[in-house]
Write a structure and sequence with these properties.
Layout (H helix, E strand, L loop, with lengths): L19 H11 L1 H7 L27 H9 L9 H12 L23 H15 L4 H33 L1
Length: about 170
């Protein structure tokens, strides 16, 4: 059915030896205007649904189906050839086909991507970038903190000794 209308699209069937079906699929999938016209409800590229096309051939209909097809054809409004009663088997083999549409598998495969960055990763990345671009590492920062601690402790010790001496001199 043509999208947005009640018009039914009819097309001729492809012969098994004629690769028209694969050419039609290639034209449909590689043409954006045709995809926009006929596949308006198709999903975006981040969600891809693939339907594998596989052809196979078989002499159809099978022998056990012949009587059912004969009864159907005789009870329908399909015009029959004049020699139907004698050549109906040959006529069915030459003019009828069986079409089966079967899903390949019922397995659904979902691939998702998510970026997870933990606290350790953040600290590691910051330290790595800092070391790479500035030239300092975590060890250098700890040595700087230790040096400041020793300097403050030394100054505190000197001030405390001077206060203690002043008290001893004042007594």
């Amino acid at each position: 059915m043509l999208p947005g209308t009640d018009t039914i699209i009819t097309t001729p069937l492809c012969n098994v030896t004629n690769p028209c079906y694969s050419q039609a699929v290639n034209v449909l999938l590689n043409s954006i205007p045709i995809m926009d016209k006929y596949c308006t409800d198709c999903s975006q590229q981040c969600l891809i649904i693939n339907f594998n096309i596989q052809t196979s051939s078989l002499k159809t209909p099978l022998k056990w189906q012949l009587d059912g097809i004969k009864a159907f054809v005789e009870n329908s409004s399909i015009p029959l050839p004049t020699n139907w009663s004698t050549t109906w088997r040959k006529h069915i083999y030459n003019n009828y086909l069986s079409l089966s549409v079967v899903r390949e598998t019922s397995i659904v495969e979902i691939n998702t991507q998510s970026s997870v960055l933990g606290l350790v990763d953040i600290v590691s990345n910051i330290g790595g970038q800092t070391g790479l671009w500035i030239g300092i590492s975590f060890l250098s920062i700890m040595e700087l903190i230790e040096m400041l601690y020793r300097l403050i402790r030394h100054e505190y010790h000197i001030i405390r000794e001077s206060i203690t001496r002043k008290r001893q001199v004042g007594e």
